[in-house]
Batch of 2 targets.
Target 1
Amino acid sequence: MIEVHKLTKYYGERAAIRDLDFSIAKGEVVGFLGLNGAGKTTTLRILGCLLLPTSGTVSVDGIEVTVNPYGIRRKIGFLPDVPPLYPEMTVGAYLAFAARLRQVPGCEVAARVGEAEEKASLRDVHREVIGELSYGFRQRVGVAQAIVHKPALLILDEPAAGLDPAQVVEMRGLLRTLRGEHTVLISSHFLAEISQTCDRLLVIHGGELVGQGSEDELAAAMGQGGSTILAEVRGQGAGVSARLQRISGVTQTGERKESEATTVFEITAGTDVRAEVARVLVGAGCDLLRLERSTSRLEAIFMNLAKTGGPQ
Amino acid sequence: MTAVWLIARRELGTYLRTMGGYVIAAAVLFVNGILFNAFALGSDRSHLSTDVLSQFYYLSSGTIMTASVFLSMRLLAEERQTGTLVLLASSPVRESEIVLGKFFSSLIFLTLMTLAGVYMPLLILVNGKLSVGHVAVGYLGLLLLGSTSLAIGLLGSALARSQLVAAITAGGLIVGAIVLYPLGALTEHPQSDVLFSLGLWHRHFPPFQVGLLNLRDVVYYVAVTYFALFLSIRILEARRWR
């Protein structure tokens, strides 16, 4: 879907990005990680045809960004870091305007607006003026304008920036619904959001791509192979730790009392063994309350890549 | 629906939905009314009707240029300031369609605003003797001058990041284009002829004012409008190369 080769962009004498090489397959959901000023927004703006590269090539669905930007713009939905909203318009009128701009046939506009509002949970504010909406709603309107024409490629720059924790959870839910319908490239500082939403990560630092792959692949490359799984259970049966230890690939297990009735197991394994862990815990007579991968590992990977500039 | 009309319609909606458009229209009509009563009619009511009408167009040409600066300052500068230009720039819309959509919306609003003052020539018509041709040519001149000023204002808005800077830039460009004529008087032939011909007002507007329709003046205003819009399109395109 996206092929980027030797992509470089200079602002005056300063290189914002240098020799970026990556590709994104159709249907993939890819996270773009980097510190402020790393070059994420510049890269996304080039993919969104808002900027031209100094050198290198970018193609979307085989169309070169420098040759036919007009053709690429038909295929993309773009949400910049500040949602491009007209505060005096109502949500419905704005989304209809965005749909028509993206060449949705007139007879389909109302239906597409309805679908986008449904996905972004904006039905109740269809007639509301955008300027009077809360920040979270405005961010959702921003996402809705990006998906209203059902683009093949969706580029989202910091979709959860500035949201409160409840709104972040809602936004994460919204992003999950986009999976399968679009190829998605998300830039974000929220590692939990990236970890739970994306198939693959691109890590950029100082304008250079310092890592790419799944979380496991990046961890392995950084010498932090294996993932830590957290499992919270109630009513622990006998010998559960030992049984977890016997799962193929598990290298370490630990447990701590979370409360009077609940226990949290920390299982470190070379591969994703969540399914096996669930079977063992349920088989041991425990009530499984929570099962998730620890996000602290992604933080460690990210900070290592940012500090060291790539796998050693 | 073409992208030009789509953008123009949304922009026109903004003029009509926000206070800005009404404030500019009200101010122009108020000032025109005061000027018409105080200077065009004057205290000596023995003027010829055609002189009163000519004076009305003379006075209106100043207010229409000023209004054009205020109407056009927000067109692109505000979009850039608030980040909404990204919506247009990431859609399958050409820069020329963005600029033309913005220009036509402001021209439609300016036309409506100008025609709202048509009661003043009608008052002269009721109380005196006028040719309809004089009224029509005068309004054509006002609209051509207004369209050129809007295009120059749009150029200022394309160059600036803030509306205030856009207004100052547009005002500077319009005043600069007007003073080319007086500058011509300070130079010698043939430079003076060039400067006289390029001046925005002194040579090209007065014929409309007295009801004379010269193709040369129409071509001048259309050409300057085209040139200013062309530069605005190029500036928008060049922003992708930053």
Note: The CA atoms of residues 68 and 146 of chain B lie 6 Å apart.
Target 2
Amino acid sequence: MIYLTDYRTASTTHVELIENLSYPQKVNWFPETYNKAKLGMIYPPHKLAEKVLDPQLITKIREKPAKTAFILAAGNGHLAGINPRKIPENDLNYAYKFLPFTLTQVYAGRTAQAFGEIEYISTDATACASSLKTMMDVQSLINYYGFDRVIVLSFEDAVSNSVLEFFGEAQASLSLKDEMKGITPSAFDEVNGGFHVGQGAVLAIFESERIAVDPMAQLMGAYTASENHTNAIGQKEDGEGYQKAINGALAISKIDPTQIKIVKTHGTGTKSNNVAEKFALESIFNDFVATSYKPKIGHTMGASGLLETCLLLDDLNYGVVPKILNRTASDSRYLSEDALSPDGMILSVASGMGNVYSAAVLSTEL
Amino acid sequence: MNFLDLFNAVARVARPAHHDFVSIDTMDLRFVDSCFDSLDMIMIGMFMAMIYDIPDEIAKEMNPTTMQEMYDQIQQHKRRDPESLEWALEQIQ
């Protein structure tokens, strides 16, 4: 058995408008991560990661040696915040003096050593599914390779010129034009929808039953699947990718769909995701409540799957499944109001560009 | 201002906050015997170059192996001196 034994999260509801872009948009961010970024030695994503690299937790892990793996789920291979196009000078421009510091695997190696002796260090670049996709790796490492602990650190260079230009051009993030019409971030809603790009990070510790003490949740099973689609940044309306990932996770978990009562959706609120994710969920389950954290904290990209799962565990500690912000219709499934948490297992879902879908089943009934 | 104090303060910023840190208290110490790895030393070197206003192209070629060598190379290429420890840290934080 695999347990989530500890975690730290960083996310923010602080929203600011970034105007000096080709596609002006609001973002959820920690502006202080850009302090001195233009010196070329201090990178905003590194400062973001340090928000979850709790020295006390690191010390606790060092003092309890075990066969340990470290995975940096960064959503990309590069944290440089560069943009090859000519873009206006703005606060998100930052220089870098040494390329190695911007490569995610170098950062992973530099960070992993803080945790003591590490047997395995890797990175994951599976776009916005990245952190949840690593749950499949956690299973493999613990179940088949004799690891007793897997440390997953996840964050991405989300609020950067590259990302904002990309999402703006792809019309994925909520545009300023939409917001001026009164549209606000939400998911599964007929009126509101879409997301702000957001900064966020999560550090999660998974341990085998051999060493786990006082676990917070059990990782029952996880699966990542691809979707057969000609459009690498599109989603099929029948939610094929979601269905394959969810059914895979249920099979690995050896549980029946009726045991899932709470769903942490990917919930970007884009029209295509609303249709695909809803269709998939309702094809498999018929008695569940669903929430989305993206309307509240923004889309933290590679970090989002695992970060939002940990935020849900925080809320469940208070017995609450939180509502999806800015719903305009009353809805007891895709929650328009906070709901008391039902007994049952949790399904967490994520999707990434490049036709990738991840799902993980967790239980807090320990 | 003591150079060792400045170095240790700069090194604390350069080395990731979650890593072990042991201050250096002698000019004779070889960096390979310190807690700082090669990437730490790159960052420390570039921070020192910013504080002493040494051009990047020169700073990148400075590869001191001891504290004394670092001090000597900085004295050779510097275009200013830090006003105080606080001022120096303001330049890099």
Note: Chain A touches chain B through 20 residues (CB under 8 Å).
